[in-house]
Amino acid sequence: MRRAGLARSVTIGMSMRSMAIGMATLAVIFELTDIWVTAQLPQPSWTPLPLAPEDMAGTAFSVFGAILVHSRPRLVIGWLLCAGGLSAAANILSANTFHLLYGSAAAGWPVVNFTWHVLQLALGVLLPLLYPVGRLLSRRWRWVVALAVAGMALDWAGALSGQKAFREPAHWLVSAAMALAFVSLVVRWKRGDAAERRQILWVMVTLPGLLVPWMLGDPFWWLATLFIPLIPAAIALAVLRYRLFGIDTLISRALIGTGLLIVVTGVYVTASAASSLFLAEVDRVAGIAAAVFAGAAFQPMRRGMQRGVDRLLYGSTGVPGTLARRLRHRLQHADPVHGLLATLDMLREGLSVTGVAVELDGTTTVSGSPGPPERVISLVWHGEPVGLLLVGPTDRRRFPAAHDERVIATLTPYIADAAHAVRLTAALQRSRERILTAREEERRRLRRDLHDGLGQSLTGMAMSINAARQSVRSSPESADLLLAELRAGMDAVSGDIRQLVYGLRPPALDELGLAGAVAELAGTPVEVSGGLDGLPAAVEVAAYRIVQEALTNARKHSGAATITVALRRAETLRITVTDDGSGIPADARAGVGLGSMRERAAELGGTCVVREADGGGTVVDAELPL
């Protein structure tokens, strides 16, 4: 059953697409025929073009309607474009044909009247009522269609009965229905979400190209021919691909460009006129001065207009410059832990989205309800990726700024700074926890060694002293034996104390210095560049332990015959231990020793890398900041 239903749906879809292509092809044929017919008629005085606006409408609306039907066969918008385009082509062809044959289009009034009414109903009433989703706002708007049909019926009644008095009210009824249909677009704009508003705005941008010439009348009406294709193109783009383009950016640049052109032209013309009136003898110099003045004022005017357009489109909270200042102020006055969430709250309000989030090292900081993100933006701090910014669906308040690339490019560096600060804070917290853990483990080891080892030894020595005192007179031999054992015990205690002290800091560092202590470990001279005097104690201990572990690994696991150690001091202390052993096995896993070297370097903010040497063997390369 499912396969049969799917096959039936595919067949219907193919039939609908073929029908739409047929309508578009027929409209194009009508238009080509009309151009030939028009060439047989005298050239109209109101247009220099060989075709009328209806010719362009017939082709453009039907072709873009077929494109829409091909992509969305069940969406009524495409069918309205096809029907409107075909009726426009048939209307202009019939009118010109009857005019050529009979000297007047009135001879074919039934065809001309019918095609004109279909054109009005499809493109003037139904299209604005149903755009962009293909359904009415509510059932109450059906009476607008009824009003248009009533006007058209009254027009037919007047034409058939010969009562011209009927035709004037019929015209007003149809015009009122068309006006109310466009009012429904305004209502849909106010009630719709951000996506629907963008779709409506695409069409609104193209309408002035048709409405302005129409309002100016015959001397300029022919200009509408050039702008008519933009309307169906905008409809198709808004329905199919509206998310891929920033219509708000297009409007912003168009308004700024138009305003600058008007202002600069006005300044130049005013300055030139003033110079011609008062300084006629230096007119050329004054013209150059006017141009220089207009050019100098260009950038301040552009910035002022940009701020005005941003405020118009996005409101006071969505202007990029204002948002950037607020984010900077918030980051300066918030602690790193809560700074990211505070900036996300402000970003969500400024972009007018339901929510935003930042993914950072496996954790997500959320403001609002982002849901499935509509945009995923990489956050980069000085060339280093630090996380992802997830922008949720747009809100209904004002015009959303979340899809304006200029807004996003202005704000993401501040979010990246906040995310980097959170990462640093988290790393610092983890470092503190590791230091605290290591300190407590070291204290526990000292306590255990002192209590179980040194403490027990001292207690035994005290008991031996008491026994020797009791037997020194009665049994000198026994007392001498006890004192000898006590002397051996004291040597053992001294060894234990030496081991404890050595665990805290190798004595060789104090006795021989870092270079001498490392040379004693390696048994060979050490390559030293730069003075090693005055190194921080923590750096000396870390360097000594890294070299010690590297030597142990080379001797124990690689079977190295030659080991070289190099210590180089510049802005950092560079430690390099190279051996000619068997190298690192392919299936080797990092053990405790390798992890210990990396941790000692990381505790100081440095790095430790273990790699294969170029000629075979292993290289341990550590760098410790000073």
Share of helical residues: 55-70%
Mean pLDDT: 75
Query: Biggest sheet, open or closed, and with what strands and sense?
Result: 5 strands, mixed
The gyration radius over C-alpha positions equals: 44 Å
End-to-end C-alpha gap: 76 Å
Strand-residue fraction? 5-15%
Q: List low-confidence stretches.
A: 243-247, 279-283, 397-403
Helix and strand pattern? HHHHHHHHHHHHHHHHEEEEHHHEHEEHEE
Backbone structural class:
alpha+beta
Question: What best-fitting shape do the alpha-carbon axes yield?
Answer: rod-shaped
Alpha plus pi helix count? 21
The order of strands across the largest sheet is 5-6-7-9-8
Instruction: Work out the number of β strands.
Output: 9
Detailed description of the structure:
The protein has 21 helices and nine strands. By secondary structure, it is an alpha+beta fold. The strands form two sheets. The protein has a five-stranded mixed β-sheet. Strands 2-1-4-3 form a four-stranded antiparallel β-sheet. Helix 2 (53-71) runs antiparallel to helix 3, helix 3 runs antiparallel to helix 4 (109-130) and helix 15 runs parallel beside helix 17. The chain starts with a helix and ends with a strand. Mean pLDDT is 75; it is low at 243-247, 279-283 and 397-403.
Outline of the structure:
By secondary structure, this protein is an alpha+beta fold. Helices cover 69% and strands 9% of the residues.
Chain-wise SSE layout:
Blueprint: H1 2-39, H2 53-71, H3 76-102, H4 109-130, H5 142-161, H6 167-191, H7 194-206, H8 208-216, H9 218-221, H10 224-227, H11 230-241, H12 247-278, H13 283-296, H14 298-314, H15 320-333, H16 336-351, E1 355-360, E2 363-368, E3 375-381, E4 384-391, H17 405-471, H18 476-504, H19 507-522, E5 527-529, H20 537-558, E6 563-569, E7 572-579, H21 592-603, E8 607-612, E9 618-625
Parallel strand pairs: 5-6
Antiparallel strand pairs: 1-2, 1-4, 3-4, 6-7, 7-9, 8-9
Organism: Nonomuraea monospora
Catalytic activity: ATP + protein L-histidine = ADP + protein N-phospho-L-histidine
Domain Histidine kinase: 545-626
